[in-house]
Amino acid sequence: MIVDVIHPGRPNVSHKELGEKLAKLYGSTEECVFTFGFRTAFGGGKSTGFALIYDSLEEAKKVEPKYRLIRHGIGAKGIISSKQRKERKNRAKKFRGTKKAKAATAGKK
Amino acid sequence: MVSKSKSSSSSDAEKFLESIGVSTNSDHQDVSPELAKAVKSDAPLLVKSLNSLIESITSTKSKLNELKERIRSETLPTSKGVSLLEVKLHSLLSYLTNLSFFILLKLQGHSTAAGHPALDKLIELRVVLEKMKPIEAKLKYQIDKVVKAANEADGKGASKGSASGTVVGWEGEEVERKGVSEYELQAAGVSDPLQFKPNPRNLVGAMSLDPTAPTYQDEPGSGVYRPPKIAPTKYTEDNPKKKSQLSQQTRESLSKSRLFRDMREAFDTARPEQVTSHGTGYGLRELRDAKDEELQKIEDFELDNYQRLGATRDRNKREKAAIRRSGTSGIVDEMENLETDFLHMESLDRAVSFDDKQRYGAGLLAKRNQRAEAVFGEGDESGARKRKHMGDADEMLRFQSKQFSSKTGYDKAIRKMTRPSHKKRK
Known about the structure:
Chain A has 109 residues and is an alpha+beta fold.
């Protein structure tokens, strides 16, 4: 659904707060409500975005893209810093196949 | 061969088919219903083609008789060896005979398997004809010329029965012209049939054909010289590269800048101020330009597809170009453009000082004149003082750009900075 939020005097509303409000409105739990794409209109006071409400968390996990699940707290991000990623890759270069995964994590220590 | 029925209705077709022993009823035991149906459908077409065949045969027969007479009277020399045209003639004839034999075989129901000698002969002749085609194409000009000469000569009054036609063998052999003089041929516009080199006189020229067509000069005494149109050339209005400090582009971009627009507003009181109602919501129709439309489209897409579109490199480029073209966009950050505004002010400052110099003179004299004007106001212009009155800021700029020479490094630097940004060399 498209959600128009009117918040005069406030910068904008957080995802969590929006989730709570929507859950109450539509009789769901806030863990099944996913919000994204909010843009505040020029001048402030109003923002427009999208929200999706699922029947259960299991279904949400199946459908939603990874980044939205991470925002919700499900799943974790991998290594973010590029230097660490490159080091990991270079460690894994020495091996072939499944041993790569072992080497990538083991070599750190 | 068969009854010459001019109409090709289906009843005739049936009659014809029965006459050659093919039954169209499906009652007959030997004939399968599909076959009968196919035969029935093709029958009118067959009749039509047979009729045309008969007609063409009769016409060729008459022509052949004529040709036979000619050969018998020995007016066509065939003693000098086999020429291309003769080969073609004979191969076509034998192709015809073989083809007719082939058709006969088909009609009578004999098998026409691949190894049949008639078929072999047909294929061979076909190959020969195909190989002759390119050679014919090369000779086309010569043959056409000769045929044309023959036709013209025929029409010019030589007797029809006599051999007024010319025969050209392979590689241009003896030409026989009985009863046709060289003069007649030239009058026919062919000149010498043996001359196969390109003839420029045959080209249709504007001068020779149409005496009323306009020549290079209108009249001998008109005095208007019209140069001959040989090749298209570019037309340039003025001298292309004037060494002016402010080029046309710079001037345009300067005139569009916010600073000058503000100044124009303040000083050019004769001009009424123009403000667009775009975005205000007033007016008969809400004004929407291309940018508005684009934004609306993006908005619609986003809401329909539940996804936000980010700014792409392509869109950013277009936006920047539009801003540069328009001079200012709707909402402009003043601080951003302060630097360029000050640079623009340089040229304006110089223009003002130049005008002052013109108006008041230089140095101490200028001060005195300025004070005098302040006290006594604008008197009438004395003839001695050359005062140049400018209409508005634009004119002032234009004047100073014409007069001002920029030889110093400072001037060059300023010029570089006031150039449009995409030409900047970093």
